[in-house]
Design brief:
Structural class: mainly beta
Strand content: over 45%
Helix content: 10-25%
Order of helices and strands: EEHEEEEEEEEHE
Radius of gyration: 13 Å
Distance between the termini: 6 Å
Number of strands: 11
Shape: globular
Strand order of the largest sheet: 1-2-10-6-7-4-3-11
Length: 135
């Protein structure tokens, strides 16, 4: 399981070890991770954690452009920078270069009912601290 604290909201997520084993393993190497989560620019009702040119060492695996709220993606870089996409509503994953696909590696188990609130906070109050840690 993964514990996520985004701004004032605590969530837990199930790691998708069967569907995305390489991505989960690469992500676990980054834990605990502290960063900022900001409103996505092109993806709709989603926030993202920019990771710049970080090399995570994975290719596409269990990838999608249409994640449901609470399905967390890791984009391993390429057309755009490496990032974590955190959908809280209707999302089509994209960048200024066009549509992207990210690896669905975690799914929220608790706190899903607070996703809209998290989206509102990020949109109207700006970047929030975020923590990812293994439980």
């Amino acid at each position: 399981m993964l514990r996520i604290v985004a701004g004032p909201i605590e969530l837990t997520a199930r790691l998708e070890a069967e569907a995305a084993p390489l991505t989960v393993a690469a992500f676990r190497k980054l834990l605990p991770m502290r960063s900022k989560i900001i409103q996505a620019r092109w993806s709709g009702e989603a926030a993202w954690v920019p990771l710049g040119d970080l090399e995570v060492g994975v290719e596409y695996e269990n990838h999608t452009s249409h994640p449901a709220p609470g399905e967390i993606l890791l984009y391993p870089g390429g057309i755009s920078e490496t990032e974590i996409l955190f959908p809280y509503g209707a999302t089509l994953f994209a960048s200024k270069m066009g549509q992207l696909a990210g690896n669905h590696f975690a799914t929220l188990e608790s706190g899903r009912e607070r996703l809209k609130e998290l989206g509102r906070i990020i949109l109207w109050e700006g970047a929030q601290d975020i923590l990812f840690e293994d439980t």
